[in-house]
Specification:
GO molecular function: ATP binding; D-glucose binding; fructokinase activity; glucokinase activity
Order of helices and strands: HHEEEEHHEEEHEHEEEHHHHHHHEHHHEH
Number of strands: 13
Structural class: alpha/beta
CATH class of the domain at 46-244 and 438-452: Alpha Beta
CATH superfamily of the domain at 46-244 and 438-452: ATPase, nucleotide binding domain
Shape: globular
Distance between the termini: 61 Å
Largest sheet: 6 strands, mixed
Keywords: ATP-binding, Glycolysis, Kinase, Nucleotide-binding, Transferase
Radius of gyration: 22 Å
Family: Belongs to the hexokinase family.
CATH architecture of the domain at 46-244 and 438-452: 2-Layer Sandwich
GO biological process, one term: glycolytic process
Pfam family, one: Hexokinase_1
Strand order of the largest sheet: 1-11-10-9-12-13
Number of helices: 17
C-alpha cells in the first residue's frame, strides 16, 4: 500500500538500528580524532586541566557565574562537605541585543549582574579579593585552569572583539571597569561543571551532559590518549568533548528539514549534531515539517495549502510547545488545540489533525533522545577500561545530565534509557544511571575555583 505524505514525513525521523550504530561509530571516530588533531578549526576534545573528581568533602564560600545560551546565572556557593551545598543564585536573561553587540557591553553587563548578587547576599568585600569560578558554555582553548581563548560561540551569539581573546582577561576587565575586586581562579565548560558537581553528590558519575538550548558532554580520559595536552604530567584528564560541533553528513541521518536549519543558521556546517537534537532546534524541526505538510495539503486541509503567517516565522514553534503537547495525556490530544489556538491563532483542527501533530512531535522528540543516547554510548565505550568498566557487573556508572530538555521534556529520560537498552543490551544498560544534575555549572565552577585557589587540581 502506498504510504501517505504524512507517513513518509514522519518516518524520516525514525532511526533504524543501522543508523544508530553509524552515529555511534562516527562520533567515536571524531572523539579519537579530536584527541590529537592540531587543526585549529577542530574545537573538539578540549582538555579542562582538571585531573580528578571531587571527594564530596570540600568546603568554603565562592562566587560563580554560569553563562549559557539563554541565561546568565550568578551565584554565591557555600560548599558544606558531605556532598552538601548552599547556593544563592540569580538568573538573568541574555537579550538578543547583548548577544549581537560588543564584547565590552557583554562583560560590563556580567559585572553589573555580579554586583547585584553581592548586594543581595550582603557580602562586604572591603579590600578582600573574592575568588570566582566561571562556567562558560561555549568552546574555549584552555591554556590553564583559569585561562582559555574563546574559539567559537554559536547559539545566536555574534559578539565583536571576543573571538581569540582570553576569557579571564575579558571578565576581569569588566569587573575592573565596575570597581569589583573579583579574581577569576577557574574557568570550566558547563559540561565539565555538570560532571564535577554531580560527582560531588554522586561519586559514580563519570560523564556530564548538557541538554538545553544547546548540547555538549564531558568525560574522563587517560591523559596518555590526549596528545594535544601540554601541561603538567597526570594520569587522567576531564575533557570537554564539544560534541555539539561533531557530526558529518556521511553518518548523520539528516532530513531535508535538518539541512534547511543548517543552511539558514549563523554558521552553516557548524554544530550539525547539536542542530538535530537540542532545545533551540527541535521546535523549528516541527515547524518546518508542519509548513511542508500544510503546503502539500497533508495536514490542516481546511487551510487550503496556505501557511498562516504565525507559523511562517523562523523559530515560531518553540520546543516548549512540544513539551506542552506531549505533557497532555488526553485521548483527543487537547493540548494540540490549546497550543495552536493560543500561540498561532489557528482553530478548527480535526481529531486526525491533532493525532498527526502529536505523532510528529513525539517522533522528533524521540529521535533527539535516541541520538543523545547513542552519543553517550560512544563516550562510555571510549572511556571503557579507564574511568568506566562496562564489564564489571558490580560497577554502576552515572551520567549526570543538566538542562531543560532532559529535566522538562516529557518521557525524554525514559526514551534515552530505552535506547541505551536497545543499543547496549539489558545487562549493561541496567548498570547505567541517568540522573538530573541541576545547576551543575555554578556548583562545579565553585568546586574547581576552591581547589585552584589552594594550588591543586580537582
Amino acid at each position: 500500500m502506498t504510504k501517505s505524505i504524512f507517513q513518509e514525513t514522519v518516518e524520516q525521523f525514525v532511526l533504524s538500528k543501522d543508523q544508530v550504530q553509524k552515529i555511534i561509530n562516527g562520533l567515536t571516530d571524531e572523539l579519537v580524532e579530536g584527541l590529537s588533531t592540531k587543526d585549529p578549526k577542530n574545537i573538539t576534545q578540549q582538555p579542562s586541566f582538571i585531573t580528578r573528581l571531587p571527594t564530596g568533602h570540600e568546603t568554603g564560600l565562592y562566587l560563580a557565574i554560569d553563562m549559557g545560551g539563554t541565561n546568565l546565572r550568578t551565584a554565591a556557593v557555600h560548599l558544606l562537605g558531605d556532598g552538601q551545598v548552599g547556593v544563592t543564585m540569580q538568573k538573568h536573561e541574555i537579550t538578543h541585543e547583548l548577544k549581537t553587540g560588543t564584547g565590552q557591553a557583554m562583560f560590563d553587563w556580567i559585572a553589573d549582574c555580579t554586583a547585584g548578587l553581592l548586594k543581595t547576599v550582603a557580602i562586604d568585600m572591603g579590600d578582600a579579593e573574592l575568588q570566582m569560578g566561571v562556567t562558560f558554555s561555549f568552546a574555549i582553548q584552555q591554556t590553564a585552569i583559569n585561562r582559555g581563548k574563546v574559539l567559537a560561540m554559536g547559539k545566536g551569539f555574534d559578539l565583536s572583539d571576543v573571538m581569540g581573546h582570553d576569557l579571564k582577561d575579558l571578565l576581569e576587565g569588566g569587573f575592573a571597569r565596575k570597581n569589583l575586586n573579583v579574581k577569576v581562579s577557574a574557568i570550566i565548560n558547563d559540561t565539565v561543571g555538570t560532571l564535577v558537581s554531580h560527582a560531588y553528590v554522586s561519586p559514580s558519575t563519570k560523564i556530564g551532559v548538557i541538554l538545553a538550548t544547546g548540547t555538549n558532554a564531558a568525560y574522563i580520559e587517560r591523559a596518555s590518549e590526549v596528545s594535544k595536552y601540554n601541561g603538567p604530567t597526570c594520569d587522567q584528564m576531564i575533557l570537554n568533548t564539544e560534541w555539539d560541533a561533531m557530526g558529518k553528513a556521511e553518518y548523520l541521518p539528516q532530513t531535508k528539514y535538518d539541512k534547511e536549519i543548517d543552511a539558514v543558521s549563523l554558521v552553516p556546517g557548524f554544530q550539525e549534531f547539536e542542530k538535530m537534537i537540542s532545545g533551540l532546534y527541535m521546535g523549528e524541526l516541527v515547524r518546518l515539517a508542519l509548513v511542508d505538510l500544510i503546503e502539500r495539503n497533508a495536514i490542516l486541509e481546511f487551510l487550503g495549502g496556505k501557511v498562516p503567517e504565525s507559523l511562517s516565522q523562523r523559530l515560531a514553534f518553540k520546543t516548549l510547545f512540544m513539551s506542552t503537547i506531549e505533557s497532555d495525556h488526553s485521548s483527543d490530544h487537547a493540548g494540540v488545540d490549546k497550543v495552536f489556538k493560543t500561540s498561532f491563532g489557528i482553530e478548527g483542527l480535526t481529531p486526525e489533525d491533532r493525532a498527526r501533530i502529536f505523532q510528529l512531535i513525539h517522533t522528533i522528540g524521540k529521535r533527539s533522545a535516541t541520538m543523545t543516547a547513542a552519543a553517550c554510548v560512544a563516550l562510555l565505550q571510549k572511556a571503557n577500561g579507564s574511568s568506566v568498566n562496562l564489564d564489571d557487573p558490580n560497577e554502576i556508572t552515572t551520567i549526570g545530565i543538566d538542562g531543560s530538555v532532559f529535566e522538562k521534556y516529557p518521557h525524554f529520560s525514559h526514551s534515552m534509557m530505552e535506547s541505551l537498552i536497545e543499543i547496549m543490551g539489558q545487562d549493561r544498560a541496567s548498570r547505567i544511571r541517568l540522573e538530573l544534575a541541576r545547576d551543575g555549572g555554578c556548583i562545579g565552577a565553585a568546586l574547581v575555583a576552591m581547589v585552584s585557589e589552594s594550588g591543586g587540581a580537582v
